[in-house]
Amino acid sequence: MKKIALLACMAAAISASAEILIGNGDRIAFLGDSITANGNRPAGYVNMVMKGLEVAGVKAEKVPAGVSGHKSNEMLARLDKDVISKNVKWMTFSCGVNDVWHFDWNKGVSLEDYKRNCSEIFDKCAAAGIKVIVLTATMIREDASNKQNTMLVQYNDWLRAEAKRRGLPLADLNADMQAELARIRAADKTPGNKLTVDGVHMAFPGDCMMAWGVLRVMGVDEAKKDEIFAAWRKMPEAWKYELKLTDEENERLLKAGICPGDLARRALDAMDGWKSVKWRRAAFEGGVWKMGVDGVMTATKDDAIWSDASYSNFELDFDYKLDAGANSGVIIYAEDTKNWVPNAIEIQLLDDNHERWKKDAPELKNGSLYGHVAPTAFPAKGAGQWNHMTIKAVGQQITVTINGQVALDYSLAKLTDGKVAPSGFKIPGHLPRPWSTIRTAGPIGFQGMHGGALPYFCNVRIRSVH
Asked: Is residue 276 within 8 Å of residue 266, measured between CB atoms?
């Protein structure tokens, strides 16, 4: 009986998977104008489609091909370069807004020329074995009765008919947009845009509308909708706000180690128990450490920066980036901030693949308990790319997660020798003290420019854990 039930479950899973048009490993080009170009921002519709497929169990690859201002003739001209040459299996086609809108400047594309351009795009894709998903053009300002949207009706009507004639999947985003606006306005009588930032380019709700319309046509089950929308709500940069400060106010915040743009993030973090790390001001005032207006901290010398407070049983979360050849570290449980090297725990930050370090032992690599314990995974990105690290320190148990993957999980209680690591590796001579004897409380710090190349840190936050 159990075997039959298992086979039934497997059959159901295979059946559900088969309903999705996109397969694992498929490359999808997103051809379009500025709406599609903006859709490739972190929480734009392009990345939402990819996230939705992932939630539905499909690992595909995107090929962004949106260019601001482009019309059907320009998309046709770059089709070979931006799509066909990229070895894609699928292409979403979003075109028509500028063909109509640009008539305001006498640069629009007539309906007949639009038909010819789109038909040639469809023909070339078919010849190349690329399957096209047609998207009707979204509204030009959130008023269906204006002259641009009235004119756009003919273009979208032709797209619908042509997609049906050719047997191409169609996501009717124009109809979806009008329906969503009607739904919102039934409850929200306030003036202003509801789905877009400017009447044309999508805000987060508009990107959700577009992405779900595409996913629905791709065959993603309606039962997955709530889970997918929940995943979208966690995507970064869904909303951006403008903060207006005087130059004096901005300077005061930066000198205190606070990025003005992070203030809303800090308020949200506080709801989840996260707090900003307050750094000792001497580090900034001395000119060694600097914080830019983007909130990124870096140091021009090999001087560590220290938190004002001591921490125990905590989770430290931050982003970091290393220039080529950089060698830095995260310092926790520091008993002595002046002579911290033998009297603290260091989690190594290193450009592992640089010529200078690539032959180093695993106990010295990125994510290691420096000189003592090698990481079990190496998920860090290379030099010049941002990484996300979380260090969880509960008593002597240290867990290091890099880019969502656990790289190290180890107890300091096992480090009872100051000369030889548990692996047999010879601990560097400047670390003679057994780390099992270091107290599990103290300031945290970031090492400065130790390897002759710059480290960068941002979005640093901390919270208590038990």
From this structure: yes
Q: What is the dihedral sign for C-alpha 452, 453, 459, 463?
A: negative
What does the pLDDT average to over 129-142? 98
- 409: which 2 tokens? 């999980």
**pLDDT (0 to 100) of residue 2:** 40
Whether residue 301 is found in the same domain as residue 434: yes
The string over 219-253, giving b where at least 16 C-beta atoms fall within 10 Å of a residue's C-beta and e elsewhere, is bbeeebeeebeeebeebeebeeeeeeeeeeeeeeb
Question: Measuring CA to CA, which residue among 219, 78, 102, 213 is closest to residue 155?
Answer: 102
pLDDT band for position 31 (cuts 50, 70, 90) = very high
Q: Are residues 53 and 178 in the same domain?
A: yes
6 part of a folded domain: no
Burial class (CB in 10 A: 0-12, 13-18, 19+), 128: middle
Give the pLDDT confidence score for residue 194 in this predicted structure. Answer: 94
- Check the CA dihedral 144-149-150-155 and report its sign: negative
Q: How far apart are CA 155 and CA 153, in angstroms?
A: 6
The pLDDT of 127-148, averaged and rounded, is 97
Domain-located, residue 271: yes
> Model's pTM, two decimal places?
0.61
The CA distance from 363 to 420, in Å, is: 11
Question: According to the model, what pLDDT value does residue 266 have?
Answer: 63
Alpha carbon distance, N-terminus to C-terminus of the chain? 44
Whether the pLDDT of residue 219 is over 80: the answer is: yes
Kindly state the tokens that stand for 173.
Answer: 């985003």
Q: Domain range for residue 293? A: 265-464
Does residue 26 sit in helix, strand or coil? coil
Average pLDDT of the residues of the chain: 91
Partners of 107 in the β-ladder:
none
**In this structure, which amino acid lies at residue 199?**
G
